[in-house]
Amino acid sequence: MELDEFEVIQRYFAGLTAPRRDIIRGIGDDAAVLDLPPDHELVAATDTLVAGVHFSEGAAPFDIGFKALAVNLSDMAAMAGEPKWATLALTLPRADAAWLEAFARGFADLAARHEVGLVGGDLTRGPLTVTVQILGVVPRGRALYRGTARPGDRIYVTGELGSAGLALAASGKAAIDGADIPAFCIERLHRPEPRVGIGRCLRGLASAAIDISDGLLGDLQHVVQSSGVGAEVELAKLPMCSTLRAVRDADARWRIALCAGDDYELCFTIPPGRGAELSRALEGVDPRVTEIGCITAGRGIHWILPDGSSYQPRASAYRHF
Ligand code: ADP
Ligand code: MG
């Protein structure tokens, strides 16, 4: 069944997320009008998912809706922002009711968990493309940036690395070692859990933060380059997912942990001597965080293998151009 534009908006998006008192005008006018809390700064990010690039043509619409919001929430988490509102620009080859219903459910599922209100968007016909913009707030001066790490700071990552990368590799031509990919890896690839809560706990504590969307290799590189520092990372300390740890080919193991991307964990730095404060701030918060190395006064990143020798990464981070 093919629906018209206004039916689609009314039926699937107008009442999709819970009302918020700070939405003065949401879906239905030319633009949304939002009430900002005093003494806060607006934090805005946008990310696009393109069929055939970010997900396969046949991907489950629930997962596409979920992930389109998740990747934006992950950016908000890295800035220590509190997400509040989102807009959704959807380009569809056709308005298929079953597809739209599942897509909207996926989006709403994650939106409800983070109390995000969908306040507007756009609908166009064309190759399947999903753009979400997330809007949030942070108390004045409390946002975290990627370019503010200092020599001596400890480097941490949240959760585990490589689960999504394993699932991604297994879905392509190059199955790894014929490894069986457990369901949790596939879940992590399609429905990443953005670390919004941890990001907020890091306010006033972390010296820098970034989300790991393109792999630790490339994203830590962004931190050191924009901070004008270097880093040393001990690969033995990397919190690799258990399935990846069991992969026999060491080169594939490091490559997936560092370069596969799609993990949506946070990488952040903590000034020396503030580790205990970090532990207190994150008490009872899931998932665990792991210290993997430190920021140095040099340039570039020194990746240290378990035997003490240097690891020379051959693969690089994912780049569109
Ligand atoms: P305009 O023509 O003024 O750009 P539209 O006709 O595109 O407005 O959209 C009508 C209303 O529906 C607007 O408030 C817009 O923000 C909202 N809207 C359109 N597409 C979506 C969508 N995919 N999700 C949420 N809201 C949407
Ligand atoms: Mg429009």
Structure described in brief:
With 321 residues, the protein is α+β, with helices and mostly antiparallel strands.
Structure in words:
This protein has 10 helices and 13 strands. It has 321 residues and is α+β, with helices and mostly antiparallel strands. The strands form 3 sheets. Strands 8-10-7-11-9-12-13 form a 7-stranded mixed beta sheet, sandwiched between helices. It has a 4-stranded mixed beta sheet with strand order 3-6-4-5. The two termini are 38 Å apart.
SSE layout and pairings?
Layout lengths: L4 H9 L9 E3 L7 E2 L5 E11 L10 H18 L3 E11 L4 H17 L3 E9 L3 E11 L14 E5 L4 H9 L11 H8 L5 H6 L6 E5 L3 H12 L2 E5 L7 H4 L4 H10 L5 E6 L4 H7 L7 E8 L3 E5 L5 E2 L10
Parallel strand pairs: 4-5, 9-12
Antiparallel strand pairs: 1-2, 3-6, 4-6, 7-10, 7-11, 8-10, 9-11, 12-13
Helix pairs in contact: 2-3, 4-5
Decide which structural class fits the backbone: alpha+beta
Low-pLDDT runs:
none
The helix/strand order is HEEEHEHEEEHHHEHEHHEHEEE
Q: Roughly how many Å apart are the termini?
A: 38 Å
Helix run count: 10
